Amino acid sequence: MAAKVTMPSLPEKPLSNVPLQLHQPKNFQFDSVPESHAWLDLHDHPTVEPIGPDTVPLIDLTDPKLTAKISKACEEWGVFQITGHGIQPDLLTRLEAQIHRLFALPADLKLNAAKSPGDVSGYGLVPISSFFSKLMWSEGFTISGSPLHHAQKLWPDDYSSFCDVVEEFDNVMRQLGNKLLHKILLSLGLSKEDIIRACPVRDWHDMSAAVQLNSYPPCPDPDRTIGLAAHTDSSFLTLLYQNSVSGLQVLRPKDHTGPMRWVTIPPVPNTFTVNIGDLMHVLSNGRFRSVMHRAMVNPAKHRISVGFFCGPPMDVKVGPINKLTGPERGPVYRPVTWQEYQRLRRKLFDKALEAIKIGEEIA
Ligand code: OGA
Ligand code: NI
């Protein structure tokens, strides 16, 4: 069963038509949280520290028992952290420096690289903002394809240092994402041959990916606002890098250790947090559930994060893998492409997965 969460403040009017300048007056230099950014319902469930049974699994990708560990983590959590991934710390340091360079630019310069209406790439509000009447305490920069066009607008004379790091990151993360995708499919009990037959991604060149840079400025009253509202990702899986400032939380269902609760996923140097997205939920026929998560803000420190979203090639339909369906549990979801699913999400947000349930199509 998908985790249920109270959605904060239903949109009274969509924000997508409001000029971006109005969204971030004074570049977050507020003495207090203005009404535009004040959220209700943030304390729908208790928040717990990552200790004891609420410690997110940390998995070394070189572990001989890797498949079993991933299987357990995906079933019990839908999220885990990884070491032994082979991504050089130096690359992450250089990427972090470029992200700080980007978000430290004056607001009017950043607006030169604003997303055009209907476009996914560029600077602006985080992608889910249009569903809420309140604004989030964050800025985002989405990269789908090459960042060249936008980077040239930000730094006409020095765009290549940004583009080079992003390209290097994109390359190694695609390979890591593809490796993880295959490990997750193995952990569902599929054989290598099954995976060759059924996996929508044949090799890492084939995978669709998007990079989301997030910036969460320090906030004078962090309990009144949110950096990124609760959501699931539409991807197969997402790899998240966070700097040393805590903020990511996942929703854990009620179980024998406690009630439904928000669990902090602490930043651990040189690790990535991997979470299951809606399309993996579909591919596994609901066995590996996509996980609800959100980002809180910090009173003193600037938090940044990088989401790397891995999905199928844009024209490939994803449905439950045959071998994972059976006589007593046939396919639960109808096949969709990532693009079709993203379109549904833009329309229905947290109801999109429900909408592709066989027998319950509402869109
Ligand atoms: C996202 C996301 C979490 C974070 O970009 O989809 O969930 O900590 N980010 O920034
Ligand atoms: Ni997310």
Automatic annotation (TrEMBL):
Name the Gene3D superfamilies for this protein: B-lactam Antibiotic, Isopenicillin N Synthase, Chain (2.60.120.330)
| UniProt-listed InterPro entries | DIOX_N, IPNS-like_FE2OG_OXY, IPNS-like_sf, Iron_ascorbate_oxido_reductase, Oxoglu/Fe-dep_dioxygenase_dom
Spell out the Pfam families in the cross-references: 2OG-FeII_Oxy, DIOX_N
Biological process terms in GO annotation: gibberellin biosynthetic process
Q: Does the keyword Iron apply?
A: yes
Which keywords does this Swiss-Prot/TrEMBL entry list?
A: Dioxygenase, Iron, Metal-binding, Oxidoreductase
Q: What is its EC number?
A: 1.14.11.15
Recorded catalytic reaction(s): these are:
gibberellin A20 + 2-oxoglutarate + O2 = gibberellin A1 + succinate + CO2
Membership in a protein family: Belongs to the iron/ascorbate-dependent oxidoreductase family.
Mind telling me which PANTHER family this protein's record contains? Answer: 2-OXOGLUTARATE (2OG) AND FE(II)-DEPENDENT OXYGENASE SUPERFAMILY PROTEIN-RELATED
Q: What is this protein called?
A: gibberellin 3beta-dioxygenase
